[in-house]
Design brief:
82% of the residues lie in helices and 0% in strands. It contains twelve helices and no strands.
Length: 327
């Protein structure tokens, strides 16, 4: 009996040791799982920060591009500016495509979408550059940022998204902001430039809707390559007709238009591929804050309270409209 009891005691001890080992293993697994979750959270936070930083850099690049357009616009014709913007982008795209070994072949079902992206993107650049040359830098930038409002409208008619009361109110609020900025007081020149600036957002919205339809089917850098190639070819003839030989300083401005455009395109792509769209989208409006400061420092432009009210309306309504579409 003592042998049996001794054996049972040994078994009980072994069972306790096994249970303790199992508990230790479970505790270690729990610790590892927590560490893994922390690592995932940390990666998510890092990606989010990278996305925000990239979007801010992109906004600064696009704001500086607009500055170069305005600085060179006193003597250099519009289509000459557009040509140099895109010819630099072509070299940027070719280098990236070659480095990543990406084919430029596009399937037949995507040719129409790509063509529409090129045409409306080209029109958008023309309208934006015209607005930059004829409006306050801040006004041109904020009118172009009505883009999300036009995307929301196109989503209803092209993508078949159902209109809602909240979306309708945001659209009305955003366009009221644009109306406040345009301020139709009878100055036809200002109204014309403002409407053209607003149309740049519409053309851009159509172009980016086509990009969305090609998502996952055509590489983004291939889209940039064909867009830049089309825009360069389309602007050659009107450029030649009104060509002005740039001065040394104007050559720098023209080259920097392309450099800043390429930088903006690179970092905005990186922003949306690094962080959540809903997080980084708000920082796309960084340029709206930077442009008035650049306008004041470089061009001695001042901003009225009316312009600030219009800006706030467009930023709030545009951002919330983007969030609604993402949800």
């Amino acid at each position: 009996m003592r042998d049996i009891n001794y054996g049972n005691e040994i078994n009980d001890k072994n069972d306790k040791i096994s249970i303790d080992k199992t508990n230790n293993m479970n505790n270690k697994n729990n610790v590892n799982n927590k560490n893994n979750m922390n690592d995932i959270d940390n990666i998510g936070n890092i990606n989010s920060r990278n996305g925000i930083a990239s979007m801010i850099i992109a906004s600064v690049c696009f704001a500086m591009m607009s500055v170069m357009v305005k600085l060179s616009g006193g003597r250099i014709p519009l289509f000459q500016q557009v040509f140099f913007r895109n010819i630099v982008m072509i070299f940027f795209a070719i280098i990236t495509l070659y480095a990543k070994n990406i084919s430029i072949k596009v399937k037949k079902e995507n040719i129409v979408r790509l063509s529409l992206r090129c045409v409306f993107g080209f029109l958008g650049v023309i309208a934006l550059f015209y607005a930059n040359n004829h409006l306050l830098l801040a006004n041109a930038q904020i009118l172009q940022k009505t883009n999300p409002l036009f995307v929301a409208i196109l989503a209803i008619f092209i993508l078949g998204e159902a209109p809602t009361l909240k979306r309708s109110l945001l659209l009305i609020g955003g366009f009221v902001g644009a109306f406040i900025i345009i301020n139709p007081t009878g100055d036809f020149h200002n109204i014309k430039a403002s409407i053209i600036g607003l149309s740049s957002a519409l053309f851009g919205a159509i172009a980016y809707t086509m990009v969305g339809k090609m998502s996952g089917r055509v590489d983004k850098m291939v889209i940039i390559f064909y867009f830049s190639l089309f825009s360069s070819l389309a602007s050659v003839i009107p450029m030649v007709k009104s060509y002005v030989m740039p001065t040394a300083l104007e050559w720098i401005y023209l080259i920097l238009i392309g450099v800043f455009a390429a930088g903006g395109q690179y970092f905005i792509t990186k922003a949306y591929t690094s962080g959540r769209a809903s997080t980084v989208a708000f920082f796309d409006y960084t340029g709206v804050v930077i442009s008035p400061l650049l306008g004041l420092l470089i061009f001695n432009e001042s901003i009225s309270v009316r312009i600030i009210i219009g800006m706030v309306l467009i930023i709030i309504c545009g951002y919330l409209s983007s969030r609604i579409r993402e949800k």
